């Protein structure tokens, strides 16, 4: 990248695809909050083009603020008639803004520790979460949280770190619970084993219930999704390569690499784009594209491969916990990033005794957006408010999602509002219903 050439700071050619129709305005969460053109996809594209053409300085604070303000929910992509690849443009612009943005020293240090040291290392992630759990239980977190200013409430709203016994990694091989129909491998992830190990276990349990033996990748930690979404493309590319190498090493008895099942919408969307991420690397380009073709969202795979007679049940007589009225909320990187909408609903419809209700504007962002809820808690909460109103209107007793960040956002938002609504991952509901049967 040549910093002397402003066109190198953004994906200039892609900005020319925007036809300025304005359809993105009604779907953009930040534009809905502010009514400010610069806070819309169209406005941000104008700013990018302004940087490329020298009309906006590369270190302009307004430009950097708008890059950070965006949730990159990609809802604009779903309605754009010109096919603008806004998420890709934002990744590139954020990555290149790292060379011109002036960040506070502590923020820069925190990013380096988080992205370069902790996330890629499962042992360090486990240690970090253990320390967080201790701080939560001892009250230390409540005492030090005010030191973080506006981010205090976001820290205190983090889900309680489960005990060590619930944070054990998956077994390297988990046999099918019925007649085996095949083998798959699963992404455990970086945060999932520490905060949502139960979701990983439910994923394996559900796959086992439809006849699939699951394999895990041992010490593999991070796919690089958080890096890519937060302007750390060099780290994202490095982690993409380690992820590909790790999963290519898990094969069936014939030596063929296995399908990869992902229960985190953000990770799945990112892994399906490894071919684009590594397109300029001749040594990895084809391997990355082949890898991405093997990646399947959990709901996508189960809906396609569940036997016709697989009918989970939540009938109270079977001993399953009643879910009451159930509403499903679409994670942005599932519906907009992967265009997966009907499969989760098809799976919920399979569950006998389950009452499903639609959530208004289910494809609108909940405000989680990876680590956005930690970095910009006030904005994140403001984006969440309409979602809470939609939940109230639905009178749902259980909110189902399919992404860990969304699950945390819904849990903290519901607790903050004092609502009595259960929040579960789709895999948890299906596993519980399958177990009951």
Q: Got a strand count?
A: 9
Question: Helical region count?
Answer: 24
How far apart the termini lie comes to 58 Å
Largest sheet: 5 strands, mixed
Overall helicity: 40-55%
Task: Give the low-pLDDT segments.
Answer: none
Which word captures the global form?
Answer: globular
Q: Number of domains in the coordinates?
A: 4
Per-chain topology:
Blueprint: H1 12-15, H2 29-34, H3 41-52, H4 61-69, H5 75-79, H6 86-97, H7 105-118, H8 122-138, H9 140-144, H10 152-156, E1 173-174, E2 182-186, H11 192-195, H12 197-209, E3 212-215, H13 225-229, H14 233-248, E4 260-262, H15 265-271, H16 274-277, H17 285-293, E5 295-297, H18 298-305, E6 325-328, H19 332-335, H20 342-350, E7 355-358, H21 372-375, H22 377-394, E8 398-401, H23 404-417, E9 422-425, H24 426-436
Parallel strand pairs: 2-3, 2-4, 4-5, 6-7, 6-8, 8-9
Antiparallel strand pairs: 1-3
Helix pairs in contact: 12-24, 18-20, 22-23
Tell me what the structure shows.
By secondary structure, the protein is of the alpha/beta class. It has 4 domains: 6-97, Orthogonal Bundle (Fumarate Reductase Iron-sulfur Protein, Chain B, domain 2); 114-163, no CATH class; 165-305; 316-436, Rossmann fold (3-Layer(aba) Sandwich). 49% of the residues lie in helices and 8% in strands. The protein is built from 24 helices and 9 strands. It has helices at residues 12-15, 29-34, 41-52, 61-69, 75-79, 86-97, 105-118, 122-138, 140-144, 152-156, 192-195, 197-209, 225-229, 233-248, 265-271, 274-277, 285-293, 298-305, 332-335, 342-350, 372-375, 377-394, 404-417, 426-436; strands at residues 173-174, 182-186, 212-215, 260-262, 295-297, 325-328, 355-358, 398-401, 422-425. The strands form 2 sheets. Strands 1-3-2-4-5 form a 5-stranded mixed β-sheet. Strands 7-6-8-9 form a 4-stranded parallel β-sheet, sandwiched between helices. The longest helix is centred in the last third of the chain and has 18 residues, at 377-394.
